[in-house]
Design brief:
The structure is a single chain. The protein has 13 helices and no strands. With about 240 residues, the chain is mainly α. It has 3 domains: about 50 residues; about 70 residues, no CATH class; about 100 residues, no CATH class. Helix 6 packs across helix 8, helix 9 packs antiparallel against helix 10 and helix 12 crosses helix 13. The N and C termini lie far apart (about 100 Å).
Length: about 240
Amino acid sequence: MSVRTNMTGAERTADTPIYENFVTNTPYLGTLFQLKKYLKNLRSSRQILNSALPDPNQSTQSHMHLPKISLPKFSGNCIEYVSFWNSFCAGVHDLSTISNSVKFSYLKECLSGPALLLVKSLPLTDASYNEAIRLLKENYGQPEEINRNLHISLRKLPTVHSNHGPEILCKELSTFVDEFEIIYLQMLEQNFDTNTLSIQMEIEGKLPPPILEEILKAKEAGNWSTDKLRNNLKTILKRKLGVVP
């Protein structure tokens, strides 16, 4: 058609009988109309199909929001459960751009030991993710059990000795202060009452006479608390570390 349209003069006159004969014997206009109609239907069908498919941009966005830092690990120590779960929530659980089944896959990657065995047999589905959370909380997130284990950890703190020389004393006291700090912060994280006589006596029972004497003098100022005991131990350690070369 475009070729004939561009024809002029004698060329077009000579082509007219050929064109009219072609139009008479070949009903191409009807075929062309049907092809245009078919193409229109194809475009409509493609639009419907595209609207039914997942948005690729959303998928890419999901992966962009996946955590880029190392995820927390949990092996079944109930004392570590709350800290683990808070970190996992920040990195994975609170994301709205990934499905629960994908979150469950990430969760299993974070687990090991008894904690992994607890949920390992669950199928990789959205429902299994919620069930895994329930099982973990039921087994490791009970406040009473966590409290009991924290007090056991206090009793297991190493005893500090003063009869092996100042260097050994500083080393043992440094280890003691660091380990007590971890337990103390875990108790605060659990909202447990740390200001109890039993906790203070447990700590004081691990200290050698020279350090205990300093603690008793500090008590005379009144308003004694576990937090003051903790801070006094840090002060004593800093002073002794300044003395020891």
